[in-house]
Amino acid sequence: MSGNQKQQTAITPTREENYAEWYQQVVRAGDLAENSPVRGCMVIKPWGYALWENVQRVLDGMFKATGHRNAYFPLFIPLSFLEKEAAHVDGFAKECAVVTHHRLKAGPDGKLIPDGELDEPLIVRPTSETIIGATFAKWVQSYRDLPLLINQWANVVRWEMRTRLFLRTAEFLWQEGHTAHATQEEAVDETMKMLRVYADFAENWMAMPVIQGRKTDSERFPGAVDTYCIEAMMQDRKALQAGTSHFLGQNFAKASEIQFLDADGQQKFAWTTSWGVSTRLIGAMIMTHSDDDGLMVPPRLAPTHVVILPVMHKPETAQQVLDYCRKLAEDLRAQHFAGRAIEVEVDARDLRGGDKMWQWVKKGVPLRIEVGPRDIEQGAVFMARRDRGAKDKQAMPRDQFVQGCAALLQEIQDGMFARAAAFREQHTRRIDTKAEFEAFFTPKRAGDENQPAEIHGGFALAHFCGDAAVEAEVKDRLGVTIRCIPLDAPEEQGTCVITGRPSSRRVVWGKSY
Amino acid sequence: MSGNQKQQTAITPTREENYAEWYQQVVRAGDLAENSPVRGCMVIKPWGYALWENVQRVLDGMFKATGHRNAYFPLFIPLSFLEKEAAHVDGFAKECAVVTHHRLKAGPDGKLIPDGELDEPLIVRPTSETIIGATFAKWVQSYRDLPLLINQWANVVRWEMRTRLFLRTAEFLWQEGHTAHATQEEAVDETMKMLRVYADFAENWMAMPVIQGRKTDSERFPGAVDTYCIEAMMQDRKALQAGTSHFLGQNFAKASEIQFLDADGQQKFAWTTSWGVSTRLIGAMIMTHSDDDGLMVPPRLAPTHVVILPVMHKPETAQQVLDYCRKLAEDLRAQHFAGRAIEVEVDARDLRGGDKMWQWVKKGVPLRIEVGPRDIEQGAVFMARRDRGAKDKQAMPRDQFVQGCAALLQEIQDGMFARAAAFREQHTRRIDTKAEFEAFFTPKRAGDENQPAEIHGGFALAHFCGDAAVEAEVKDRLGVTIRCIPLDAPEEQGTCVITGRPSSRRVVWGKSY
Question: pTM, whole model, 2 decimals?
Answer without folding.
Answer: 0.96
